[in-house]
Amino acid sequence: MEFRLIKETLSSADADLVFICCFAKEGEKPSTPSLSKDDQGLELDKILEGQISKTMQARQFFGKEGETLVINTFGKIKAKTILVAGAGLQKDFSLETVRRIGGKVAQVANALKAASVSGVLETVRLKGLSPQDRLQAFVEGALLGNYNFVRFKKKETPPAKTLKRFLIHVKGATAPFEKAAALGDILGNAANLTRDLTNTPPSELNPTDLAKAALAVSKKYKNIRCKILGLDEIKKEKMGALLAVAQGSEQPPSFIHFSYKPPKKSKTKVALVGKGITFDSGGLNLKTRDQEFMKMDMAGAATVIGVFDAIAQLKPNVEVDGFIAAAENLPSGSAIKPGDIITTRAGRTVEIINTDAEGRLVLADALDYAADLNPHYIIDMATLTGGAAYALGELVTPILGNDKKLIEKVLAAGKKAGEPAWELPLVKEYKKGYLKGPADLKNSGSGSKASTISGALFLEDFARKNKWVHMDIASTAWADEPMHYYAEVGATGNPVRTIVHFLMSL
Ligand code: BES
Ligand code: ZN
Ligand code: ZN
């Protein structure tokens, strides 16, 4: 997708579709919104002899968020069609509103088979939001909204996606806006890369394929490196937990180590850790539901890959290492069995109570490996527990950790990205369940109660004394139904944009 800044007015812009936005009016009864001078809505209405305002009235368009109205221009301006997008109440306006409008405009443009779209960026602050930030959010939303996963659709029936170009009208110097659009572009594309990986079926993306995907990203840039540990090296590292999870599959595990160095040496070092279960059948504790989604159990790993794609371009002033523990969790004659006791890389033994609690096992080894580097912060991202959906639903990511300030920073980054997160408490008492039995730990202690908290508690010690945060993305990495700028069921790319904002804030 191309984003170009232009000086022409919307009536003469060389685009198939132009869009304007309307706030909904406050008041008990919904009413027709007013057109604005600032986004050229009034001017277009005049050229169209009042057709916009008349159609808004006739069709009962109220400017609610997500509402759209399409008007034919019959050759009165260069574009064939005008799209009026509802922006909701002005008091609720935020960067997330802008992202959603961006997504909506992209989707309507494709539905109308438009190749190019033009609109105005008002170069004043709106509700305290700078035009740069709004442009960035718009570009991001447009890219997220334009995404669909078509790799496996028959060639003869490609879903029509015509949109190629956005022409954004701005006043004054364009340089700061170019920068904002570029940031939105990088963030949107990085999230979409993560979505592609997460949506890819498990037989097309096993642990070795995941490692290849990581290598492919690292090869695009000079400032990131990627090292892959194969089966023998994983054995040498004594990653007993990762090996245990992988042993039921014919596919070997892989361990991926990304590293990024900033242009100027930085004192701060961050480690990102991703759960990379390319398919989670549950193992011998075979899942009786949801298996068809379990290709997404590597969304944490895909997030690490997406983040490295973004930071290689954005060059934040912080050193970043990324770790991915990848395996397939399958039942077979060689699979780990409930009752087995394994030894983690950290030396702690774990009794396997439930082979479906495999994420915490592979993460235990990855966190321990990451902790060797003594990073200032460790952030792990994992589709760890089905309970995340019961705790906070599919719009909010549960986050837990051992450092208040770090948690605050990640929450703030999530807010900025439009990927809300919320802290859950690490209730120490819930750890007791893990400590019974013949090994140092059990891999499942509390059954289904507070499983998101218990999952995090299992991980805590493996991060050692480092400042650490765990994001359980089991419910937010995947949209069960289309919403906002997620046009279809499938991967969302959450929390790629949060992590990038976090790294840029350091
Ligand atoms: N990958 C699943 C968690 C999951 C469930 C992700 C649904 C996305 C949607 C994880 O490995 C798992 O099975 N967790 C168990 C843990 C339990 C056995 C302690 C769970 O949450 O039920
Ligand atoms: Zn599982
Ligand atoms: Zn899993």
Question: Would you mind describing this structure in some detail?
Answer:
This protein is α/β, with parallel strands linked by helices and 506 residues long. The chain folds into two domains: 2-172, 3-Layer(aba) Sandwich (Leucine Aminopeptidase, subunit E, domain 1), CATH 3.40.220; 212-505, Aminopeptidase. Helix content is 33%, strand content 21%. It contains 14 helices and 19 strands. Strands 7-8-10-9-13-17-14-15 form an eight-stranded mixed β-sheet, sandwiched between helices. It has a six-stranded mixed β-sheet with strand order 1-6-5-2-4-3, with helices on both faces. A three-stranded mixed β-sheet has the order 11-12-16. Helix 4 (131-146) links the parallel strand 5 and strand 6. The longest helix has 25 residues, at 175-199. The chain binds ligand BES and zinc ion (2 copies). Residues 280, 282, 356, 358 line the site of one zinc ion.
